[in-house]
Amino acid sequence: MSIAFTEQSLQHCNTLGLPARTQVAVLDDEAAIPDLCGAPAGSPVFILGGGSNVLMQSQPRHRVLRVALRGIRLLQETADHWIIEAAAGESWHGFVTRCLEQGWPGLENLALIPGTVGAAPVQNIGAYGLELDQRLHSVVAWDLHAGRECALLPSDCGFAYRDSVFKRDGAGRWLIVRVRFALPKAWAPRLDYPDLRGHPGLQGDAPTPRQVYDAVCGIRRRKLPDPAVLGNAGSFFKNPVIDAARADALRQRFPDLRTYPQADGRVKLAAGWLIEQAGWKGRRLGPVGMHERQALVLVNHGGAQAADVQALAQAVRQGVRDRFDVDLEQEPVVLD
Ligand code: EPU
């Protein structure tokens, strides 16, 4: 079975809505995967999910494989967990909703994150006090360099904040085909995140999974622009993590600094706050700008190209460096 690549536009396959054209193929059958192994070095393949965390150059040298594998099933039920398997091409939010409806809660803090199931482990998606690695059972992926299928346990995936071995090895080595989740039967709400702790819909004694799901969806809809309406790739920068001593020194100068202590003793800063303080919230540069309700989200007001995004990202990074001496790291991966 062979996979045919043809030249296509990818403008509707990236949530920033940037124009891009390259050779594209759709993968909707796992049987076609061996055909992709050992692709010639001159034409590397970039694996694309929902395109919600990608900055596309207008004429990438990579060919693009769009993953459209489908299917969700209860793989196994143990005494303590439901093990659920979802194919990589399923919509992430659709999957979270389906699990809730089936009576398999545990992912509701991650509701409404754009993108696909297969992309979720790549950047170890996280929101509202939960990261994907805390619910992961295993990842079934093809190592396209070695030409074989592997099952990776969480300890094999090198997870860190918005990072994993799948991201570090580049977007052409690992083709994630199925992701398995271990959802504890003893469900308890995760309400550590400030926005949830104070949420009016969650003040009763025992909030239900549906109430947590609705609260998370409500918060995201209020704060974050819908990519179908205003092009964006979610947070455009990671929240920077710095040494405690540097954070203390910064707090002396900026008493309102938002800080989150990390398990390793270091301190995470809120990049959105830094960007807002640097004067970039709601500000535009050409056809792009930083969002008016969440300064961490870079938005395409219409007609932007990759170069416009890069110019704004550079200006914002410089503004934050000048004011706080902190470097911001871009979150979306680049398709070049
Ligand atoms: N803040 C500002 N100004 C802003 C934005 C934020 O002062 O313009 C302050 C907020 O008031 C708050 C703090 O910064 O005190 C944190 O803001 P928020 O709760 O909105 O979360 P975040 O740190 O900006 C992260 C994730 C989001 C995720 C939320 C909720 C990263 C890079 N981003 O944002 O993930 O939804 O927490 O958990 O970690 C994404 O990755 O695409 C994404 C949207």
The total beta strand count reads 20
What CATH calls the topology of the largest domain is Uridine Diphospho-n-acetylenolpyruvylglucosamine Reductase, domain 3
Structural class: alpha+beta
Helix/strand order: EEEEEEEHEEEEHEHHEEHEEHEEEHE
Beta-strand residue percentage: 25-35%
Question: What small molecules does the structure contain?
Answer: uridine-diphosphate-2(N-acetylglucosaminyl) butyric acid
Helix content: 10-25%
- Determine the N-to-C terminus distance: 28 Å
Mean pLDDT: 96
Largest sheet: 5 strands, antiparallel
Question: How does the SSE layout of this entry go?
Answer:
Layout: E1 6-9, E2 21-27, E3 45-48, E4 54-56, E5 63-67, E6 72-77, E7 81-87, H1 92-102, E8 126-127, E9 130-131, E10 136-143, E11 148-152, H2 165-168, E12 174-184, H3 194-197, H4 209-223, E13 231-235, E14 241-242, H5 244-253, E15 259-261, E16 267-269, H6 271-277, E17 284-285, E18 288-290, E19 297-300, H7 306-324, E20 333-335
Parallel strand pairs: 2-5, 3-5, 4-20
Antiparallel strand pairs: 1-2, 6-7, 7-12, 8-9, 10-11, 10-12, 13-19, 14-16, 15-16, 17-18, 18-19
The structure holds uridine-diphosphate-2(N-acetylglucosaminyl) butyric acid.
